[in-house]
Amino acid sequence: MIEFLLNGRIEKVDQVDPNLSILEWLRTKMRLTGTKEGCASGDCGACTVITGTADQNGSIRYEAINSCISLLGSLHGKELITIEAFHDKQAHPVQSNMMEKHGAQCGFCTPGIVMSLTALHANKEGRQDIEEQVMEALSGNLCRCTGYRPIIAAGKDAMVEEWTPEASHPAASLCDTSSNPGLEGIHKESISLSLANTARYDAPVSLDELRSLRRDYPDSRLVAGSTDLALEITQQLKSLEHLISVERVPELKGCTRDGDDLVIGAATTYRNLRASLSDLWPAFDTMLERLGSLQIRNRGTLGGNIANASPIGDMPPPLIALGATLVLDGPDGERQLPLESFFHDYKKTDLKPGEFIHSVRVPAPKDNEQLYIFKVSKRIDDDISAVLGAFRLTIDNGTVSDCRLAFGGMAATPARALKAEAALVGQPWNDASVAKAIEALASDFTPLSDVRASAGYRTQVAGNLLRRALLASSSNTSENLMVTDYA
Questions:
Q1: Exposed site from 39, 249, 344, 470, fewest CB < 10 Å?
Q2: Which residue ranges traverse the bilayer (predicted)?
């Protein structure tokens, strides 16, 4: 059985298909149809809801998520707020400003937009760049008829207004994130969902429990944020027999320093790792802003992105460029593996039966080391890479003493450009040396043509990104050091 708060009231759910998404449960079981299904893939934002999760101190973090690709079992111990919480009650500043600024036409996408902006309003991060915050919050919400100008204007005005609802309001907790008494009575033990022995969902709360489950059920599928795995359910119409969630295992969450390494738990979301990783390597900051949408970053995890083994995943190339190490765990104990050795072929990895990714060790910068990350996609927000280049360079007195060049989108796996690296090491860091390294890229990769880009385009862009690193390194501005690109 799972327990959670739904619009201020305790909800208990048992004997339900673990493949059920939050969206489908809301619409078909609870008849809360204000939350819409647009794409069923986490792209359009019409299904956006707000979840509240307590941290170790009891404070609540409210986040906008895509309910179409979030599984019902992930709600245990959390608060869920839908657009219905604001029906026939005191209007939220986001609602009133959306009306005043004419921010809706057909209204299909409007509930998701309201929820994204309401989550932003609840968090009150205190940053001065209100427009930037609003743009980030709306990066995962598509509107086909209104145009974004009035929506952005509504969001900017709403952020500076206070909201003080009555205590009985279903979403009154958004005004006080210090705690939520309604969550305190929900048990913290592991949970399990099943339906007539046809499907099962386990959510262990310790590393030992996870190891035991993986030992007993090595063919089970691991799930964290489900931002990719759920597409098998919503797009391919699969029914997954056994899911084991790692979301509640504390040993797999958070960022810590161990000597010169930053250790990131595999179940740490992009939202939660961004500050620590960007403090260590600033080039990640802008790249992470373009990794999916805010809804995706609130749910997606580092371990999931790596284990998915997609050739166009955004995180593996820069981590490979840095020489990151994977810590793998399982029935036979822990082992460490260079990330670049983890990928064997398309969607094939070095994981043994029952194993899982425990954490990722990212080395700190050494003297004269620089990292450049450039992402090329068809749009800036909420899009998948056509090519992603990540370059870790050590420049001593104008000479490349060491380098690691990694690409996504150029092969069946994220991979290093070893011949291009060999062409650069020991050479001056200048146009002539970079030109020779670009020539070598043709021997490193034979990319495929697909819907995102042709093989020729990918080859040309990969070389241009390396040339851009040279141009960026000649500038003294931090903006250029963190630049990303789109096409």
A1: 344
A2: none
